[in-house]
Amino acid sequence: MSRQVIRTAARVTLTAAIAAVLGGCFVSKVDPQKPQLPLPDALPATAMQTSPLPNPWWTMFGDARLNELVVEALQHNPDAKVAAARVMEARSFLRIANADRLPTLNLEGNVNSAQQSRATLANQGLGEIPNFRTQQTVYTVQGTVAYELDLWGKYLRASESARAQLLNSEYGREATKLSLTGEVARTYYSLIAAAEQLARGRDTLKSREEAADLEKLRYESGESDEFTFKRAEADAAATRVSTRQLELQVVQLTNALGVLLGRSPKALVDEAVSVQGINLPGPVQLPAALPSSVLSLRPDIGAAEAALNSSAADIGVARAQLFPSISITGSLGTASPELDDLFTSPAKIWSWTGGILQPIFQGGRLRANVSRAEAVREQRKSEYAATVQQAFREVLDSLQGQVLIAGVREANDQQVAALTRATELAELRYAQGDIAYLELLDVRRGLYQAQIDLVAAQRDALLNTVDLALAVGGGLGDQAEPLTAQR
Fold first, then answer.
1. Same domain, 210 and 310
2. What pTM does this model have?
3. What is the pLDDT of residues 367-393, one digit of tens each?
4. Sign of the C-alpha dihedral, residues 314, 315, 316, 319?
5. Which sign, positive or negative, has the C-alpha torsion 379, 384, 390, 392?
6. Same structural domain for residues 456 and 339?
7. What span, in angstroms and rounded, lies between the C-alpha atoms of 407 and 415?
8. What is the pLDDT of residue 16?
9. Is residue 295 predicted with pLDDT exceeding 90?
10. Are 402 and 473 in the same domain?
11. Contact residues for 355 (Cβ-Cβ < 8 A; gap 6+)
12. Cα–Cα distance measured from residue 469 to residue 22, given in angstroms and rounded to the nearest whole number
C-alpha cells in the first residue's frame, strides 16, 4: 500500500472521527428549559428611601456586638461547616467526572516462576536436552493505556452535570451562610427585646407588690375592703407570672444564640451571651430592590438554576448510553527470564486492542434511565419556579412590612404616652377617692401591656429589616467565598 493511500485513509478516518464527536455533542446536548417567569417592572416603593444596602448587610445596624457574633457564627456554626464540606465533596465528584474523559495509564510489574514436571518432559523427549531447565522465571514490566472515545458526549455531559452540581453546592453554602447571619441577627435582637421586656416586667412587678402591700395595710386598718386588697394581690401575682415567662424566654433565646454561634455545651453555660446594657437600635429603612437584582443576588435562586442545568446534562448522559461505545487498550513493556536482559531491545513486548460495544437488549433499562432523567428535569424546573416565587413573596412581605410595622410602632408610642399620663391621673384620683381601685388597676394593666407591645413592635421592625435584607440577597462581604464552578 502506497504512502499516499495511507495518508488519504488517515485523513478520511480523522474527518469521520471529528464529525462523529461533533455529532455526538449535539446528540447529548439538552436544553434545561429554564422557566421564563414574568417579573414586575418595579417593586412597591417604601415610605422612606435610604442609601443602598451595605455589604455585608448586617453592618447597616452599626452594631459592633452583632458584627462580632455574626463572624463567630460563620466560623464555628456546624451547619456552615457541613455546607463547606458538601462543596468539597462536589468538587471531588467534578474531578472524578473530568478524569473519566482522559486516558488511564497504569504500570504493572510481574514475576512468574514455575516448576515443570520432569516426567512429562521425559515423555515429550525434552528431558534429554542438555542443560534444559525445568524451573523457569519470567520478569515482566509493562505500561497499559485505556481510553474510551467520547463520540456521543457521555463523559462531556457528565462533567457538565458535575460542574453544575458543584455550583449548586457553592450557592447552597452561601445560602446557608446568609441564612445563618439572618438567624443570628434575629435571635440577637429578639434576646435584647426580651431582656428589655423583662426589665420592664420586673419594674412593674416591684410597683405591683408595693401596691399590694399598701392595700394590705389599708385593709388591716379598716380603710379598705378585702375585695380591693385581693385584687391588688392578684394583680401582683399576674405580673409575677408574666415576669417568669419573660425570664424563660431570655434563657431560651440565650441558649439558641449560643448554639447558632457553634459554642460547645460547656461554653453555653460558662460563656452565655449577655445583652445587659444593650438597647434595641432604631429602625432602619431599606430601598426597594429591582426585580432583576433579586434574581441575580439570591444564592438560593442560583442553586436552583444550577440544579436545573445539572439535570439537563444528566439527560444527555442517559441518551449517550443508547449509542455504541468504542474503547482502545494498548500495552508496551518488556519480558525476559533474566533481569539483566529485561530492558534490552529483544525483550520488548506490545499489544493493542480496539473494541466496540452496542447495547441491544437490557430490558428497557436505558430508555427508562432517559425517562427518569427527563422527569428529574421537570422537577427541577418546578423547583426553580417555586424558589423564584418564594423569593418575591419574601421581598413583597418585607417591603410592605416596613410601612405597616412602622405604623404599628407609631401607634404603640402614642398609646404608651397616653396611658402613662392616664396612669398618673388615675393615681391622683384614686388617692382622692374619686375612682375605685378597679379603674386604677385597669389603667395600670393597659400601660404595662402597651410598654411590652412597644418593645415588641421595635423588635418586629428590626426583624423585618433583617428579612428584607436577606430577601433581596444581602451580601456577605469578606465572609463570602468565590464560586469556583463559574470559572
1. yes
2. 0.84
3. 999 999 999 999 999 999 999 999 989
4. positive
5. negative
6. no
7. 12
8. 44
9. no
10. yes
11. 326, 327, 328, 329
12. 46
